[in-house]
Amino acid sequence: MEVFSHLIDGFAVALSLQNLTFALLGCFIGTLIGSLPGLGPANGVAILIPLAFSLGLPADTALIMLTSVYCGAMYGGRISSILLNIPGDEPAMMTCLDGYPMAKKGRAAEALALSAIASFIGSLIATIGMIFLAPIMAKFALSFGPAEYFALFVLAFATLGGVTGGNPIGTLMAAAIGLMIATVGIDISTGTQRFTFNLLELYEGVDFIIAIVGLFALSELILFVEEHHSGAVRKMIKVNKLKLSWKDFTNILPTSIRGGLLGFVAGVLPGAGASLGSFISYTIEKRIVGDKGHFGEGDAKGIAAPEAGNNGAATGALVPMLTLGVPGSGTTAVLLAMLISLNVTPGPLMFTQHADVVWGVIAALLLGNVLLLAMNIPMVGIFVKLLSIPTRYLLPMVAVVAFVGIYSISHSVLDLLFMCVFGVIGYLLRKIGIPLVPIILGMLLGPEMEKNLRHAIQLSNGDWSILWSSGLSIGLWSVAAMGLILPVIIGPLIKKRMAAKQAKA
């Protein structure tokens, strides 16, 4: 089959010494970032993007390293959930329900090992699903015209908050801010300056990378200083010697497979995300097990289900990003910005114009999961020790990476000032509950959205009905409308149940 031929070529890319080295580095750094409460994969990837540019990495190597960071962070989120009862990010919240009780029973090592195995199975299933689904979606996307692409971008904004999002109005406000920032620069159609204030640096618009590092990395640093200024060492449950049996593995295998499949579907769906994948996997598994299980009391299946679900969803979210150019999660939005900055445009043509990048990343995901499994079981003690490092030592290192990385790209002090401004803006927006990912998405998709809208109107001689004249565009508009309505109706119920389950545990 053609798919396997492309996959073999992808392994040739992924197995090069440079790509393999950066994949291993990304897995280690990602696991460390994921284990630190509050950082999460989106912030981790944002912090390391300047490093990829300053090192002059080619597109395939940069994407392999950052997707390895992404997957590693999803693995690492379970460590603080199990040992501290503090999720590394929102998708890892469900892992606290049984992970922490199991650790309190003296089985912390087993909980960490089983969660790593479940993460591996979930991510592996999703990667296999990506291998077969992504080319089909890419071919389907070739039938899109400018009107369909405009409707697709509206769908991306409408579903960005996801059904687990708690602030749909704030999400739309953030998207509007991002779209406004996207208009800064010279209009490519008319040559008119828009919001440049006669600053030469703004003629080409606002740099994605500067905005991402400022909004994510610097705002996170400010929040860390505010919330963890004492720098106290966190008290965690001691990890004893691992005693894992074959029975323990076979016990969670069906659970992990189901969780991986459910997570992959949640990841591919626009706006669903890893949080929903984790929640659905845990809830369905609890119903399947019924009274036979001890969910909430340290049941191994209660650890395996959410971990397989959130890792499957994280990998599944890469499918719409690579095939349609529309990110399926906050982290993939950051990855999308990095690819655009490298002059690689994700979408259906990427599978022909940049096949080496696409299949190299897919092959690297398969290798990365093996590396992560091999790394997370024997080396978990290292991550546990790193988890106890006071934040006053970690913050300066993160700040240095951010500032040096941005300066090494353009050697402009003004870019550093812009980054600081975005950092303060990001901090203020977080304090009032407005999410940051929609701002980045607006900046990324705004130019393409405007271009496709103009093209569609020109083709129809000014007739706006072209935007909903085809069956495909009507379907996209319908899903976008559902994406706006469902979070308002279903979102609070899911968030309430997730919080209730964690409080009860």
Model description:
Helix 4 packs antiparallel against helix 11 (300-316). It contains 21 helices and 2 strands. The protein is mainly alpha-helical. The model has no long low-confidence stretch (mean pLDDT 81). The radius of gyration is 22 Å and the shape is globular. The chain has a two-stranded antiparallel sheet.
Provide a brief overview of the structure.
With 505 residues, this protein is an all-alpha fold. 74% of the residues lie in helices and 1% in strands.
Spell out the key features of this protein.
mainly alpha; two-stranded antiparallel ribbon; 21 helices
Shape: globular
Q: How much helix is in the residues?
A: over 70%
Oligomer: single chain
* Proportion of residues in β-strands: under 5%
Number of helices: 21
Helix and strand string, N-terminal first? HHHHHHHEEHHHHHHHHHHHHHH
Distance between the termini: 49 Å
Category from helices, strands and their pairing? mainly alpha
Mean pLDDT over the residues: 81
Q: What does the radius of gyration come to? A: 22 Å
Q: Count of DSSP E strands?
A: 2
Side by side, the strands of the main sheet go 1-2
Detail the poorly predicted runs. none
Largest sheet properties: 2 strands, antiparallel
Fold topology:
Blueprint: H1 2-14, H2 17-35, H3 40-54, H4 59-84, H5 96-141, H6 146-158, H7 168-182, E1 185-186, E2 193-194, H8 208-227, H9 246-268, H10 273-289, H11 300-316, H12 318-324, H13 330-341, H14 350-353, H15 355-376, H16 380-387, H17 391-410, H18 413-431, H19 437-459, H20 471-489, H21 491-504
Antiparallel strand pairs: 1-2
Helix pairs in contact: 1-15, 2-3, 2-4, 2-15, 3-4, 3-8, 3-13, 3-17, 4-5, 4-11, 4-13, 4-15, 5-9, 5-11, 5-12, 5-15, 6-19, 6-20, 7-19, 8-17, 8-18, 9-10, 9-11, 10-11, 13-19, 17-18
